[in-house]
Write a structure and sequence with these properties.
single chain; alpha+beta; Nucleotidyltransferase, domain 5; 9 strands
């Protein structure tokens, strides 16, 4: 009899623990759903740090970016930072005189911390500087991108000159800023120009590559020949990814290709590229590269199947609606914008 009572008590305890676990999971799901619908709000409550981070992960995934945690000194705080990719640094508070001083001392080999400290001393203290330390560091970093090491620009020019002497159809341009420093550079091999005459129906433009030493985006135009092989149709190095840089490249690339616009050009979802294409190549159809789209979805099999295995527009529309309904994503802004651009 006592054994039966013990067994009943153990079962009761297990049922209570299971019920508490179920209630906790229900609270966690409500918190995640609330985050997805309304976004991060003040005074939101979560059962645990894990639930908090899981909610932010789901929200970030549906918005098209990712998040990560960072260490903080106090254990009761959890710092979550956006990991959306590189963004342009904006310098708002540095005067022209301050910029000249920072760059001159940087060229003289003075370390960044001492360089900024000298600027603070000359201004009468950090509070009188009118700019933050981060502003100063960002400016120095940008100027270093523009300023190649001694002899590098000349070496590039001499290489291009030698290649043009070997073949007059070799095309190259070097874009300089107001101080005659190298800003952007592009080149096109004669074989690329000849191939483009036959294969200009679909090309892709990509800037996901980086040069390690100068951190300059490396852009490529790639096409496909009649053997289904990739062919390189032009290259460029940029100091930034602004619309003006892309306009400069596309304008000169089009000139080198005798003004023949590609029928379709594939790019990522960079707005600066789209602005440049609308102005320089209005007759070309701009479509988003599937690789870039899929890379933002954590390789969801249903999403990939919808993109790659739909054989007609009606099938795609049907599978898309099923996917959005199954994953409760009808109100997802990134997907709605993407669908609107289809």
């Amino acid at each position: 009899m006592e054994q039966n009572e013990d067994d009943a008590l153990e079962v009761l305890c297990l049922n209570e623990e299971e019920q508490m676990e179920v209630e906790s999971q229900e609270i966690d799901m409500r918190a995640i759903n609330d985050m997805l619908q309304n976004g991060p709000q003040s005074r939101m409550e979560f059962q645990s740090r894990e639930c908090l981070f899981a909610a932010y992960q789901e929200y970030a995934k549906h918005k098209g970016f990712s998040v990560s945690t960072r260490n903080v000194q106090k254990e009761k705080y959890l710092m979550i930072s956006c990991d959306r990719g590189r963004k342009p640094n904006v310098i708002k508070h540095l005067s022209n005189n301050m910029k000249r001083q920072l760059e001159a001392r940087d060229m003289a080999g003075i370390r960044v911390c001492k360089n900024i400290r000298l600027l603070e001393v000359l201004a009468g203290g950090p509070s009188s500087l009118g700019a933050s330390v981060k502003d100063c560091r960002n400016f120095i970093d940008q100027r270093r991108r523009l300023r190649l090491a001694e002899g590098d620009a000349a070496a590039i020019y001499n290489l291009f000159k030698r290649l043009q002497q070997q073949d007059r159809n070799f095309f190259h341009l070097m874009d300089l800023d107001d101080d005659n420093r190298l800003r952007n550079v592009m080149w096109i091999h004669p074989r690329s120009r000849a191939a483009y005459e036959e294969f200009h129906d679909v090309v892709s433009f990509d800037t996901t590559y980086l040069v390690n030493q100068y951190n300059m985006p490396f852009g490529t135009v790639v096409g496909v020949n009649h053997h289904n092989q990739s062919i390189l149709l032009g290259c460029a190095l940029f100091t930034n990814e602004h619309a003006e840089s892309f306009k400069w490249f596309f304008t000169n690339w089009l000139d080198a290709m005798e003004g023949v616009q590609p029928t379709t050009i594939l790019t990522d979802q960079c707005e600066s590229i789209r602005i440049a294409l609308r102005e320089v190549m209005p007759d070309s159809i701009n479509r988003f590269c599937l690789w870039h789209i899929v890379s933002k979805t954590n390789s969801d099999s249903d999403f990939n199947s919808m993109l790659y295995h739909s054989l007609s527009m009606d099938e795609f529309e049907s599978r898309c609606d099923e996917f959005l309904t199954e994953h409760s994503l009808h109100n997802n802004k990134w997907l709605k914008d993407l669908y609107g651009e289809r």
